[in-house]
Amino acid sequence: MAGKQKEDQGLICPRFHRAVEVIGRRWSGAILRVLQDGPTRFGAFKTAIPDLSDRLLSERLKELEEFGLIHREVSGDRPVVVTYSLTPQGKALKPALDALGEWASKYMRDVPA
After folding, report:
1. What burial class does residue 25 get, using C-beta atoms within 10 Å of its C-beta: 0-12 exposed, 13-18 middle, 19+ buried?
2. How far apart are CA 51 and CA 62, in angstroms?
3. Paired strand residues for 83
């Protein structure tokens, strides 16, 4: 009965849990943060997040696209240029990511990188 009571009060939310899993995956938050500055090409992610491997970057970009947080655009020109940008759903994460950044600045000072 206690579990049902918590669920009725909104304390257990599968959507919240899923959202935290999606944006909390390794490097996903960093990728979303880079995209807050505007459309980004693959190589620019490598510059902004130097420890991120090409394989893992590709994997995370595909996942974030599948979840509807980013859009992948391929130009028809030669050479082909692929650009990633935030969707409206991805842009809606800005206040949450900004708040997390402020929290991290305040409370994560003594945490080793």
Report:
1. middle
2. 19
3. 41, 73
Q: How far apart are the first and last CA of the chain?
A: 42
Q: Each residue of 47-74: pLDDT tens digit?
A: 999 999 999 999 999 999 999 999 999 9
Cβ contacts of 57 within 8 Å, gap of 6 or more: 27, 31, 42, 45, 46, 49
Place of tokens 């490598």: 46
Q: What is the C-alpha to C-alpha distance for residues 79 and 81, in angstroms, rounded to an integer?
A: 6
Whether this prediction's pTM lies above 0.85 is answered by no
The domains located in the chain, with CATH, are: 17-107 (1.10.10.10)
- Greatest Cα pair distance, the chain, in angstroms, is 63
C-alpha to C-alpha distance for 71 and 82, rounded to whole angstroms: 10
Q: What is the DSSP letter of 110?
A: T
